[in-house]
Design brief:
The chain is α/β, with parallel strands linked by helices and 421 residues long. The chain has 13 helices and 15 strands. The two termini are 33 Å apart.
Length: 421
């Protein structure tokens, strides 16, 4: 079977709404190498959209899941619970950068985690309103689409959306949006759209994922914390993409002095298995009544087993430190590329959550075509990259943190070649 044959079968059998970037099909994968059904190999700088911080098929993950497979694969935790769920919650409670007694609930997807965080905040406060940020991505379900600050392709044609959701600008030095602008917008909402006493939560990504890897300034986090404290609002940090060593710390919120009340997580939590969670202050987490939280597959034992292994790998293989080291190498390499690619206007991020933004040299407007051209050139040389940003003019780099040094160096050469044209 060829990639071309399978591509025709996909087009006939599946809807166009499930957008697919590549026209080749995976056959196998190991650490940071992906092999297609024709035997072509690719260096994976997408990692399943930030899911594989510990790489494809890490031996310790495989062993953990094999052991769980021999015991049981599913009971529905709400029907018959199991120790591994409880002990994983204990580990997350101990690791999360939130003070006080904490509790954790597990779900299946990042969108589920965000939905449940909003449910918990509304149950705790008795209020409907939620404030989110432009450029943020929080999921594809109706509530999370409403929260997401990007129309195409996520919200196009799907309205109306749930009400009582409001957006404010997210700071960006490149685009001259300051923390003061964001705070002023929140204050304007309180005067023009919804009174502060009716807002349940403010949700933000400490490093925006789909939005282009914009990093929250410390003063923004401090200001949101103060607004939440002054008005009895729950502060939610969405760490679905930024968590589990990607930014050089276990969570991106570890970089900040001010702490959220709730945090969402998913993606690299379970190294490729579907698992997400919400961790937060116990008194807030306990707001929903029994039966108010859950899901048939929520906290699946196979995924939980994998997550235990992920946390051990991050610690034992010092992946936070490796994220910093690899990220610095990438940052330097990208900065050097500015001499051959003048459209590269900014390199930003934390740890190994690094992105490059491209704008037209004449007009200064976002240059999505440049980002796409570089992405295509890199793919032709065997390197898988992802674009992002509200205008699609940003390339993000999401390699496994376990990538071998020699392969990482080869990828950097491809990136330079792709930018040179």
């Amino acid at each position: 079977m060829s990639n071309k044959q399978l591509q025709q079968r996909r087009l006939s059998a599946t809807p166009r709404g499930v957008g697919v970037m590549c026209d080749f099909y995976a056959s196998s994968a190991e650490n940071s190498t992906l092999t297609d059904i024709e035997g072509n190999q690719y260096i994976d700088f997408a990692a399943g959209i930030a899911v594989l911080n510990t790489g494809h098929r890490h031996p310790r993950l495989l062993k953990a899941m094999e052991q769980q497979l021999q015991a049981f694969t599913h009971t529905a935790y709400q029907i018959v619970p199991y120790e591994s769920y409880v002990s994983l919650a204990e580990k997350i409670n101990a690791a999360a950068p939130i003070k006080g007694p904490l509790k954790t609930a597990f779900f299946s997807t990042g969108a589920e985690a965000v939905e449940n965080a909003i449910k918990i905040a509304r149950a705790h406060t008795g209020r409907p309103g939620v404030i989110a940020f432009s450029g943020g991505f929080h999921g594809r379900t109706y509530m999370t689409m409403a929260l997401t600050g990007k129309v195409a392709p996520y919200k196009k044609g799907f309205g109306p959306f749930p009400g009582s959701v409001y957006h404010v600008p997210y700071p960006s030095d490149l685009h001259n949006i300051t923390t003061a602008d964001a705070v002023t917008a929140i204050e304007r909402l309180f005067k023009a759209d919804i009174e502060a006493s009716q807002v349940a939560a403010i949700i933000f990504e400490p490093v925006q994922g789909e939005g282009g890897f914009n990093v929250a300034p410390p003063e923004l986090v401090a200001a949101v914390r103060q607004i939440c404290d002054d008005n009895g609002i729950v502060m939610i940090a969405d760490e679905v993409q930024s968590g589990f060593a990607r930014t050089g710390k276990l969570f991106a919120m570890n970089h900040y002095a001010h702490q959220p009340d709730l945090m969402t997580m998913a993606k690299s939590l379970a190294g490729g298995m579907p698992l997400s969670g919400v961790v937060g202050k116990a008194e807030i987490m306990d707001a929903p009544a029994p039966g108010g939280l859950g899901g048939t597959y929520a906290g699946n034992p196979m995924a939980v087993a994998s997550a235990h292994a992920v946390l051990e790998i991050i610690e034992d293989e010092k992946l936070c430190q490796r994220a910093d080291a690899l990220g610095e190498r990438l940052r330097l390499a990208l900065t050097d590329c500015r001499e051959i690619c003048p459209e590269l206007v900014e390199v930003r991020g934390l740890g190994s959550m690094i992105a490059a933004e491209f704008c037209d040299t004449q007009t200064g407007k976002p240059a999505a075509e440049v980002a796409q051209r570089i992405q295509q050139r890199a793919l032709a040389q065997g390197l898988l990259l992802l674009t992002c940003g509200q205008s699609g003019n940003v390339i993000r780099f999401l390699y496994p943190l376990t990538i071998p040094d020699a392969q990482f160096a080869a990828a950097l050469k491809i990136i330079r070649s792709a930018m040179a044209g």
